[in-house]
Amino acid sequence: ISPLNGKSALSIHVLNTSYHTKGHVSYFIKDESMPLLFCGDSLFVGGTGRFFEGDAADCYAALYEKIMSLPLNTEIYPGHEYTLSNLAFAHTLEPQNKALRDKIEWSKMQREKGSPTVPTRLSEELEFNPFLRCNNETIANAIGLSGADVVEVLAEVRRRKDNF
User: Fewer CB within 10 Å of terminal CB in the chain, N or C?
Assistant: First the structure.
């Protein structure tokens, strides 16, 4: 099997995803059959990186304007394995979310076998990652910010995760 699937070149796009740290970038490999995102600390399974040098507006730009505009079948390779902790926090916000409950069970089984929980897919993350669901009233209601701006909801979700 050829790593380039018979192609002579690979197209890699560098995305400015600065919010965790200034200058943070993610690498998007545009391939119609299997697009890939290597995102470091911008996005984890069920979570995101902390706001060390950026803020909620920077995070919004990285997640909602860049990462969420990628193809839904994009495989996401984060920089760390924080899945179970992230999903436990997400469950406090959306305990009735079936996709989230299913991902928690699958992730527990993976870790018990010593297997990783990455990669993930953008389509999956949109179903249970609270940081990608701040535009959903369920998340806003869960934190008492119904009708609030997405950036405001994102900031509050991050604050709560930091204290989880």
Answer: N
